Amino acid sequence: MAKKKQTRAKEPVGKKTKVLLVDDHPIVRNGLRMLIQHQPDLAVCGEAEDAPEALEIVESKMPDMVVIDLSLKNTSGLDLVKDIKGRYPKIRMLVLSVHDESIYAERVLRAGAAGYIMKKEVATKVVAAIRRVLTGEIYLSEEMSSRMVHMFIGGRSEASGHPIKSLTDRELEVFQLIGRGFKTGEVAKSLKVSVSTVEYHRAHIKEKLQLNDASELMRYAVQWMNGQGAT
User: Fold this and answer.
1) Whether the Cβ atoms of residue 76 and residue 108 lie closer than 8 Å to each other
2) What is the mean pLDDT of residues 140-164?
3) N or C terminus of the chain: which is more exposed, having fewer CB within 10 Å?
4) Is the CB of residue 141 less than 8 Å from the CB of residue 117?
5) What are phi and psi of 8, to 5 degrees?
6) How far apart are CA 147 and CA 130, in angstroms?
7) Domain 17-151 has CATH 3.40.50.2300
8) Least confident segment among 4-8, 137-141, 163-167
9) CA 145, CA 121: separation in Å to the nearest integer?
């Protein structure tokens, strides 16, 4: 008598949360992808190295979450956060960056992201940050959370303290690009603005940072970017 073939019931497959990675360093993206793919409920749905590519993937794949670096290839991560927030307000965003949290965290939250975490943090904290943002909460380090609570209670602005904090978002982007070696025309092309607009921002940056000329601005910006660990 022929043995009855046993059939195993298929286990239900839950819908995984789709995550888009936006970073201009392939090694970083690879590390993040491996980290996320090891989670049973998360899946990487795409990778991008700049804003235009990221927006194309967002439109086609509609991820649940986007993890974004601030310094992208020829584009600004902060502008990308604002674009995604404006076009797809339901998508959650987490910024993962080498840049100082005390300078950028408040800007990132104002732009529309729901969290900020430094790249130096351990993998478990990155996963925790992703999960918290996905639940609709805000993720910041304990130190930064405490600082922002004190600012709120005291009615003080994060612009107090380091002079860099006094720069507007656009001025900070110009400053970063100068620190990366971009010339005025290249900054204008990267930010899609006119050369005169860049010159206007440069003048304000020099005034706020109390710098005398273009060479001082260049030195300061390069030192700042090197100190931030940017490449």
Assistant:
1) no
2) 68
3) N
4) yes
5) -90, 130
6) 22
7) yes
8) 4-8
9) 16
What is the spatial order of strands in the sheet that 65-68 belongs to? 42-48, 17-22, 65-68, 92-97, 116-118
| Chain segment 78-104, per-residue pLDDT in tens | 999 999 999 999 999 999 988 888 888
pTM of the model: 0.76
Residue with tokens 């967002």: 58
- Tokens in use for 59? 């439109």
DSSP-assigned letters across all residues of the chain = -PPPPP-PPPPP-PPPEEEEEE-S-HHHHHHHHHHHHTSTTEEEEEEESSHHHHHHHHHHH--SEEEE-SEETTEEHHHHHHHHHHH-TTSEEEEEESS-HHHHHHHHHHHT-SBEEETTS-HHHHHHHHHHHHTT--B--HHHHHHHHHHHHHT--TTSSSGGGGS-HHHHHHHHHHHTT--HHHHHHHHT--HHHHHHHHHHHHHHTT--SHHHHHHHHHHHHHHHT--
Q: Where are the domains of the chain?
A: 17-151, 163-228
Instruction: Find tokens 């993720």 and name the residue.
Output: 139
Can you tell me the distance from the alpha carbon of 174 to that of 194, in angstroms, rounded to the nearest whole number? 12
* CATH architecture of the domain with residue range 163-228: Orthogonal Bundle (1.10)
The total of other beta-carbon atoms located within 10 Å of residue 96's CB is 23
